[in-house]
């Protein structure tokens, strides 16, 4: 029909361009030319022809939509989106690593603070009665140094549990 002649029974296009999709052949013919498509199909093995026709039809449709870039424009856009998503993933992993390191540092700081306070407490018990230091000083020392790491641990735990991310950052003054 598009070549101004009737399709013959041995027509190379008939199996790949069904009559209910006339625009498919029209696009391929307009962009690539029927003779070029015939040569291409004849050079391929029969099992490769359907994929080739589908590729040609897609490329022809994209070339008609975007005469300058065709399907390369779509490919470039998808590659750009992929690079952007990879960069976002890298940034998210880096941020997660910082929070995990903060959690480890907080836990180590907490353990070090507890061991320092325990050593100080044992020292005070061994030298009880000397100076004005006693249990009250140990209580204030221990709780003063424990408050901040426990607060950080709580924030990190809420972040790790998947709770409100923004609230966790605000609590950490970030």
From TrEMBL:
Keywords: Developmental protein, Nucleus. Its main location: nucleus. GO terms for cellular component: nucleus. Residues 1-96 form the LOB domain. It is found in: Nucleus. PROSITE patterns: LOB. Pfam families: LOB (PF03195). Belongs to the LOB domain-containing protein family. This is Asymmetric leaves 2. It comes from Nogra grahamii.
